[in-house]
Amino acid sequence: MDMRTADDGNAVLDRDDRTGYGPETITIGKTEQTAAYTCYVHDYTNRSSTESTVMAQNGATVRVYSNNRLINTFRIPENAKGTKWNVFKIERGVVVPVNAVTAK
Which residues pair with 36 in a beta bridge? Predict the structure, then answer.
């Protein structure tokens, strides 16, 4: 499985920071108006700890740009426990906040 390119080839992980300090960059070429997209952040380092608060303690942040301008900023909820952060969805071209952290 290629973790750097989406199945349809339209999204690419441009920068994968493995030191834990970021930033990481993903570029999506074009979104289809009828499709739904979901953005997750996964803390692979602590994936076996369901009670991990490392992402929250580190202040994980996601910034969404469109047409070279910042349109949204998401910050992980304080003291969130878990290693998988469901940040947002894009539905019909609209960014919809989710902001939920789970253990897996």
Answer: 91
Q: Which two tokens stand for residue 32?
A: 């289809």
Compute the distance between CA of residue 73 and CA of residue 28 in angstroms, rounded to an integer: 17
C-alpha distances out from residue 100 to 22, 83, 84, 91, Å: 20, 11, 8, 17
DSSP letter for 16, please.
-
Q: How many CB atoms neighbour CB 59 within 10 A?
A: 9
Residues in the chain: 104
Cα distance between residue 57 and residue 79, in whole Å: 7
Chain mean pLDDT for the chain: 84
Q: How far apart are CA 18 and CA 83, in angstroms?
A: 15
Statement: the pTM of the whole predicted model exceeds 0.70: yes
